[in-house]
């Protein structure tokens, strides 16, 4: 029903924020990954949202990126994983880290997230296998722009981890092409 909110950030109290949209204040629960990237109170903010209607509550969840929202939606489809647990997962690790943990089937990375035990982590890995790895990785990369996303995907395909790829992308000029960007990124990573 409510897919996106754009307005003034009027209050920040983790994990909840209030977004004032033309005089209407929406209470939005956000993962800490989104919370840390929010502007100061009183500034303009835009969040993609997921609206949950239950018998006893109507709750709005907000995310900085489409990839975060899609990961959240995939997580809450899993039996035994509710919105709070999904927020906890996204607060404890980035979408790219989650996608990588799922594609490499690393239980240890998920168990480090508060509220996730070994059995829940194994269920997440089993049920999200093939659903999250490729799709979310692609959405995550597109968030940075087409050329930047293609460069990041190339670096990941070559075996570099997310942190190395992100560090290399930061060193690139904003208007670099894909092939030149890959060459420059590889040069910076081999130093």
What does this entry look like structurally?
It is a single chain. This protein is α+β, with helices and mostly antiparallel strands and 191 residues long. Helix content is 49%, strand content 20%. The chain has ten helices and five strands, in the order βββαββααααααααα. It has helices at 32-35, 66-76, 83-92, 95-103, 107-111, 118-128, 133-142, 146-157, 162-170, 178-190; strands at residues 4-13, 16-21, 24-29, 44-53, 58-63. It has a five-stranded mixed β-barrel with strand order 1-2-3-5-4. A hairpin with a 2-residue loop joins β1 (4-13) and β2 (16-21). It is globular. The relative contact order is 0.10.
Give the secondary structure arrangement, pairings included.
Elements lengths: L3 E10 L2 E6 L2 E6 L2 H4 L8 E10 L4 E6 L2 H11 L6 H10 L2 H9 L3 H5 L6 H11 L4 H10 L3 H12 L4 H9 L7 H13 L1
Parallel strand pairs: 3-5
Antiparallel strand pairs: 1-2, 1-4, 2-3, 4-5
Helix pairs in contact: 2-3, 2-7, 4-7, 7-8, 8-9, 8-10, 9-10
């Amino acid at each position: 029903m409510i897919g996106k909110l754009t307005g003034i950030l009027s209050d920040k109290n983790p994990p909840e924020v209030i977004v004032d949209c033309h005089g209407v204040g929406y209470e939005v629960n956000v993962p800490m990954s989104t919370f840390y990237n929010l502007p100061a109170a009183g500034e303009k903010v835009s969040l993609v949202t997921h609206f949950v209607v239950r018998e006893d509550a109507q709750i709005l969840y907000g995310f900085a990126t489409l990839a975060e929202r899609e990961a959240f939606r995939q997580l809450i489809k899993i039996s035994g994983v509710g919105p709070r647990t999904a927020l906890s997962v996204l607060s404890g690790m980035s979408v790219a880290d989650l996608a990588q943990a799922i594609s490499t089937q690393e239980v240890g990375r998920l168990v480090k997230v508060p509220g996730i035990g070994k059995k829940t982590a194994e269920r997440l890995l089993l049920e999200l296998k093939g659903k999250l790895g490729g799709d979310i990785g692609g959405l995550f990369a597109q968030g940075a722009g087409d050329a930047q996303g293609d460069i990041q995907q190339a670096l990941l395909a070559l075996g570099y981890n997310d942190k190395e790829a992100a560090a290399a992308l930061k060193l690139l000029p904003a208007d670099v092409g894909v092939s030149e960007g890959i060459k420059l990124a590889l040069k910076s990573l081999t130093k």
